[in-house]
# Entry
Amino acid sequence: MLGPLLILFVVLVGRNSMTTVLVAGYIVGFVVYTIYNVSTTLEPPDWVQHP
# Structure
């Protein structure tokens, strides 16, 4: 799942340092978001069961 993101990251490394920082931040945010979703799936809060 992270394959395309890693390829995009490698492509953008040589272009612009700010772009690299943004892509790296996006990857970190995506990983944190995924981990958060997994943790909430293991122990779903009430607002997930009753939207």
Summary: The chain has one domain: 1-49. Residues 28 and 39 are 17 Å apart (CA to CA). Residues 1-49 form one domain. The chain has a mean pLDDT of 75.
